[in-house]
Amino acid sequence: RDDARRDEAVKRREEREKAKEKEEAAPAPPRELPRIYSHAQATTTGGSGRAEPPARLRPVVPAHRSASSLANEEDDLEEVNSDIDEEGKGFIDQLLSEHFVAEEEDAKRDEEEDVEPLNENAKNFVDVGLDKSLANILLGMGFEEPTSIQKAAIPLILSGKDVLAQSPTGSGKTVAYVSPIVQMLKQRSVRVSRTEGTLAIIIVPTRELSLQVFQVASRLFKDFYWIVPGTIMGGEKRSREKARLRKGINVLTCTPGRLLDHLENTTAFQVSDLKYLILDEADRLIDMGFEEQVSKIIQLLDKKSEMGDRSSRRQTIMLSATMHSGVSKLAKYSLHDPVSVGFDIDGKDRAEDGNASFKMPSQLKQHYILVPTKLRPVILYKLVAKCFKSAGDGKSKIVVFVSCCDSVEFHHEILNELSASDEQGAVFKPQDAFKLHGNLTQQERTAVYFDFCKSSSAILFCTDVAARGLDFPSVTHIIQYDPPGEAEDYIHRVGRTARMQSKGEAFLFLLPTEMPYVDVLRGHGIQVNEEYVGQFLSEASRNNLLLLRKVNALYRDPVFQSLQRVIFDIVAESKKIHQLAADAYRSFLRAYARYPSAIKTIFNVKILHIGHVADSFGLKEKPSMIGKSQTKEEFKKRKGDHVKTLARAKKKPATQKKRLYNQVFLSE
User: Fold this and answer.
1) Predicted pLDDT at 435
2) Which residues of 65-102 are buried (b: 16+ CB within 10 A; e: fewer)?
3) From CA 494, how far away is CA 475, in angstroms rounded?
4) Among 400, 433, 377, 411, which residue's Cα sits nearest to residue 560?
5) Can you give the pTM of this predicted structure?
């Protein structure tokens, strides 16, 4: 209960005690009637100069009271009025006494109430504070026993305190903060109405995560139809969102940019009575550049709350997988006297050397594969085929992470072509293949998300847009074809599998020169084991361990040669795929050059074999000619133009010669 209400009750109790002490020396001052009653003539004086007894009491009709409850209250008042003495003092004293006793009992309960400690032995959600109806809904959703984060966070949130929580990815933190909000809203003495506006806001970094949280909230609210959940996010029509906000959304899931837009420009967006603010994936919000927007959102919410109900303080909940300076700053700005779960605001969970140590699910198997540049696509598709075959029922769900949108498009197209190829049909059986990246429209991204979730056996090529927070059901394998830049990114990528105690397997592709990256991961407590590349090639290569150490010998492996030839043919025969390959090649090099400075020595674009990189995208031409015209006629014409340009340059001043030289030889 609210601190202000308790302070007010204590203050009134002290005043009443002082009044009793002075009662014998002087008459007690007249006291006000409770707010729910009024009378026609409470202070009318007669000829004697003293106050006359009050007239008959009548109830003030609140807008939310029903006719039946008012009728019952009037009957009760008739009985009370019949007992009022001549001056009405007995009734008023009795009513005020009951009023103060209730306030004192509430204050006493608030003072004695302690935060329920973590119940490690909790076997169900009733044990952590949720009621049976909500526990049954969670049971129907497949949550039989609360996870550690749910055991720790749910009692704290129900206590009304601000909470700062850390949890390993895939541990059920969405249920940990949504379920107590559901319970607190449904248990209000007055039913929640759409006319009250938004009472809870959940801010997430990506649109897909907003949809996912909205789905969870919708299922939890299904039996409490009077509470309306909703979502707003970039990519949707603002006018439609404005109409929904005008009708009223009680629990709103949103991305920061669109929320700030509506707070600034949508007059009908009512947040003056906001009770709960949740910042999910706070570290990702900071990393994606939303820090300024989140700060503005909090300022606007504080400003608008001054016009609303001030009887209760807004409760803020922040969840983050990691703690760095940006998250710590946001926590100190947005949280009030928080209770921490997993770490504190000062970031004391970090090791002395500054490296955060991450907790990985015990059921997650992690591997790395040292793959020469030329072998990368072959090993990728052989690994995909192996993952599908490893499932006894043939149902596997694989997520492949690459560094850029163009690579997603290229590999998605190649896999579809390999699945349709007669030569490789025995290895690459047709599978549902999906792609997800930031260049897709919001409608396309939403459709891909739901289709991949529904599929029982599929593969998804994606960028890091899908690395944080998204809960894809039953993902069995994670393949990081392009290594992540930070250890935190690695954690969130592999976190798409081995969720909620299910098993999972993760593979990381590394070039031989990138081997030191394994030590970087181990410095963060991430243990990965090596998988030998030869196991994906022919039986002769698998049996010859010495051959595995000779890269040139691996290039002569028949499995590699046959599959590489197929990929070359697919790229050469289709102008569309060839263009995709050229775009992916250039985007890959740009992404490789943008690795963080701390690991630049490991991922150094200058030591890449550019020709082998081109081969890995199925491009036969020289790197310098990728993206340029390749026909003889166009090549001769281009060469002739160069000769004419150089001839003209001899007659120009030196500065113009230099400019023309750069135009000819240094431009693509």
Assistant:
1) 95
2) eeeeeeeeeeeeeeeeeeebeeebeebbeebbeebeee
3) 10
4) 377
5) 0.63
Do 358 and 525 meet the contact criterion of CB atoms below 8 Å apart?
yes
Q: Nearest-5° angle of CA 26, CA 29, CA 35? A: 160
CA dist., res. 230 & res. 241, Å (int): 9
Average pLDDT score, the chain:
78
Contacts of 642 (CB under 8 A, 6+ apart): 664
CB 279 within 8 A of CB 319: yes
- pLDDT tens readout for residues 146-174: 988 899 999 999 999 999 998 766 678 89
Backbone angles phi, psi at 114, to 5 degrees: -110, 155
Q: Which two three-digit tokens encode residue 457?
A: 């056996």
User: Is the dihedral angle over the CA atoms 600, 604, 606, 610 positive or is it negative?
Assistant: negative
Tell which residue, 431, 436, 378, has the closest CA to residue 617.
378
First to last CA, the chain: 68
CB burial class (10 A; 0-12, 13-18, 19+) of residue 110?
Answer: middle
Backbone angles phi, psi at 231, to 5 degrees: -145, 145
Within 10 A of 392 (CB to CB), how many other CB atoms are there? Answer: 6
Task: List all residues 6 or more positions away from 535 whose beta carbon is below 8 Å from its beta carbon.
Answer: 542
pLDDT at 136 over 70: yes
Burial 220-229 (b: 16+ CB within 10 A, else e): bbeebeebbb
**Which one-letter amino acid corresponds to residue 383?**
L
Distance CA 130, CA 119 (A): 13
Q: Which residues contact 581 (CB under 8 A, 6 or more apart)?
A: 410, 571, 617, 618, 619
- What pLDDT shows up at residue 101? 46
Q: Which residues contact 505 (CB under 8 A, 6 or more apart)?
A: 364, 365, 366, 367, 387, 476, 477, 478, 497
The whole-number average pLDDT for the span 398-424 is: 87
Q: In what order do the strands lie in the sheet with 364-370?
A: 432-436, 458-462, 397-401, 477-480, 504-510, 364-370, 529-530
Beta strands in 499-550 (DSSP E): 504-510, 529-530
d(CA 233, CA 254): 5
* Average pLDDT rounded to a whole number, residues 181-208: 93
Does residue 534 surpass a pLDDT of 60? Answer: yes
Phi, psi of 563 (to 5 degrees): -70, -35
Angle at 402 (CA atoms; ends 397, 406), nearest 5 degrees = 115
CA dihedral angle for residue 580, residue 586, residue 587, residue 591, rounded to 10 degrees:
150
**Which is nearest to 578 in space by CA: 535, 612, 621?**
621
CA distance 266 to 460: 37
For residue 269, pLDDT over 70 is answered with yes
- Structure tokens, 139: 């049971």
Strands 364-370 and 504-510: parallel
Does residue 47 surpass a pLDDT of 60? no
DSSP letter for each residue of 378-415: HHHHHHHHHHHHHSTTS--EEEEE-SSHHHHHHHHHHH
Contact 274/198 with Cβ under 8 angstroms?
yes
Round to whole Å and give the CA distance between 377 and 491: 24
Q: Helices (H) and strands (E) in the chain — how many of each? A: 25, 16
| Dihedral sign, Cα of residue 416, residue 393, residue 364, residue 177 | positive
Q: What is the DSSP code string of 169-237?
A: TTS-HHHHHHHHHHHHHHT-SS---GGG---EEEE-SSHHHHHHHHHHHHHHTTT-TTS-EEEE-TTS-
Q: In what order do the strands lie in the sheet with 339-341?
A: 229-232, 251-254, 200-203, 276-279, 315-319, 163-165, 339-341
Q: What is the pLDDT of residue 345?
A: 43
Residues facing 621 on adjacent strands: none
